Amino acid sequence: MNQVNIKEILTQYTSEVNSVLKEIMNIEKNALAPGLVKAMKYSLFSGGKRLRPILTLMVAEMLDGDRDSALRVGASIELVHTYSLIHDDLPSMDDDDFRRGKPSNHKVFGTATAILAGDALLTFAFNILSKLNLPPDKVLKIIEVISQGAGHNGMVGGQVLDLEAEDKEISLEELKKIHSGKTGALFKSSILAGAYCANPDRTELTALERYARYLGLTFQIVDDILDVTGNEEVLGKRVGRDDELNKATYPRLLGLKQAVKEAEFNAEKARDSLGPFGERAFLLKQLVDYILVRQS
Amino acid sequence: MNQVNIKEILTQYTSEVNSVLKEIMNIEKNALAPGLVKAMKYSLFSGGKRLRPILTLMVAEMLDGDRDSALRVGASIELVHTYSLIHDDLPSMDDDDFRRGKPSNHKVFGTATAILAGDALLTFAFNILSKLNLPPDKVLKIIEVISQGAGHNGMVGGQVLDLEAEDKEISLEELKKIHSGKTGALFKSSILAGAYCANPDRTELTALERYARYLGLTFQIVDDILDVTGNEEVLGKRVGRDDELNKATYPRLLGLKQAVKEAEFNAEKARDSLGPFGERAFLLKQLVDYILVRQS
Q1: DSSP 3-state of A93
Q2: What is the ipTM of this complex?
Q3: What number is the average pLDDT over the span A124-148?
Q4: Chain A residue with minimal CA distance to B181?
Q5: Are strands A98-99 and B98-99 parallel, antiparallel or unpaired?
Q6: From CA A57, how far away is CA B69, in angstroms rounded?
């Protein structure tokens, strides 16, 4: 299977995730605050690649898990991811006016509603999860790994470190810590939550945790590189933003060439982590390459 | 038992809730972002009455539920309540510089960290809940009622309506809708979550839902009244703030005298709702009176 095929498969998966998201977000009827629902949907349906839900789905499939539940779990994680983007773009945070080629949530709905739309998306994610059609103990593990990855020792903690690091000289170790929180933690949650849609054993969970760590790093390094070399139209956001905010990035700390090497190194590690799954990990391996060479 | 005794009992319960909160929030060690943990704890330990956790605990006790779990459930709800206060106080929302007699979270830590501290508290609440020592199906019901009450058709939805209503003439019906979302929904979650720490039947759940509705209204009307008649030092915040923000309130719509009557009427309804529990509901009835005559 070549690069063209993984793209086709991803397009198919993205479309499935979008269908489930549409079904979940069919909440206009009797909504207490219709304006809030509008703001929630604006950011959720602005053309994301749905990478996290796809990870959940691919892992669940690889382990012969419950596919329908995995789609709902993945959709919930996309709600969490979307909330984090809305809050990250706020004037008091990264102050980004555009996201995926469209005005940011707060530019359209105002700061107050944007904050609340984020809050509501995060809360709704856990509501969807609480009603999954899986054994209750599995559901609780899924809620645990998602709330862990999204919380103070994961995504939110990483964002705080990121803000604290602005205008500061930081080391590569510190940069890795920021990214492992900001991006890596929810990647890990997506992958482990997919596993809990099946019956993973200890060895499988350990291998998947390693995969998550290296895939997250690959993703973030490429993200940093694209902020330097990317095409604004393809990216849907302004490039050079990290530099403007005086943010530490891989290209800044290592130079562009070495940053690319670092991304390739982590991609190799991610692929290696999948050893225990053999041929079954075919798609997850292809996904590493896709993330490595992506243009947006 | 007289009014003095309920105050003593509440002091005792508050102290128990605070102990569990302290244990839960003992997360400094190995924290990814120590500054974030500091901001979370600042607002959480600024002297709240812990009314919502106390409701959870009293309901669980009345139904012979698991007391230790009820304390942890209540503590999680207090995390959710605290996050909502932090976000409500933000410059783009109610723009309050003081809360419980201390500078608001964003005045101390800045807007970005305040938003993230709120996000982290909300997320951590679900993490604590996912690890409760109760049957998994009960835990999922608890997560469901809390995420429902805190979300777009509950607390967050109510806050959006509240912001939309500023500088507008609204009806009493619309005001009730705002309050049922903003305050009532999480009261209801606290009460039902307490019930799910036991084995509630349909009749009990229906009675508790009625109790929650009327107690929430009583609480909010008294809150509005205190913003007119209260003592700033006892309240720990400025009075007259609703008027400044041109907010619809019960005293504004009904006049002060009629607003007091409305509070008494709802308190009576709340007490009546507890009929099915007979003598067992003694404390929950006393709590209605406490909320009605409170000074802060």
Answers
A1: coil
A2: 0.95
A3: 98
A4: A32
A5: unpaired
A6: 33
